[in-house]
Write a sequence for this structure.
């Protein structure tokens, strides 16, 4: 959660003024930070969780132990539905940490936050 707070400092959120930070722990033990990156075309915004995940995957990490997410102090920030689906692609049993309105830490398995994730069987054969 300390890393998530540090990640939030880089947030680009002039439109919502709702900075979010995430810290994703890879199976390798490496931590990956992410913040929300907003755009003047609002729908193009990327959440902190996906920023962290895409950074990690780009670095070659594929399995994850836990993610901590933080928004404004005292505001809970469990990942949005889109981020749950994107995280579940790699680690459906990921531990997700966030804080409730009183600042107490909460923790749930991603599989509890996103039961019945959408899945496709990867296609076999040569890459095109
Ligand atoms: N946001 C996140 O970064 N993570 C979430 O799980 C939900 C929302 C961001 C997107 C946008 O920049 C701001 O919070 C307000 O929705």
């Amino acid at each position: 959660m300390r890393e998530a707070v540090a990640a939030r400092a880089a947030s680009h959120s002039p439109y919502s003024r709702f900075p979010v930070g995430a810290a994703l722990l890879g199976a390798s033990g490496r931590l990956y930070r992410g913040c929300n990156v907003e755009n003047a075309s609002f729908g193009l915004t990327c959440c902190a969780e996906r920023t962290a995940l895409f950074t990690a995957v780009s670095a070659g990490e594929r399995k994850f132990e836990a993610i901590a997410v933080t928004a404004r102090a005292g505001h809970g920030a469990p990942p949005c539905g889109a981020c749950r689906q994107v995280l579940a692609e790699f680690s459906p049993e990921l531990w997700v940490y966030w804080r409730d309105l009183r600042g107490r830490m909460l923790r749930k398995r991603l599989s509890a936050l996103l039961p019945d994730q959408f899945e496709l069987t990867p296609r076999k054969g040569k890459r095109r």
Notes: Residues 13, 16, 18, 20, 36, 38, 45, 47-49, 79-80, 83 surround tetrahydrodeoxyuridine (CB under 6 Å). The mean pLDDT is 94. The domain at 2-113 is CATH 3.40.140.10 (Cytidine Deaminase; domain 2).
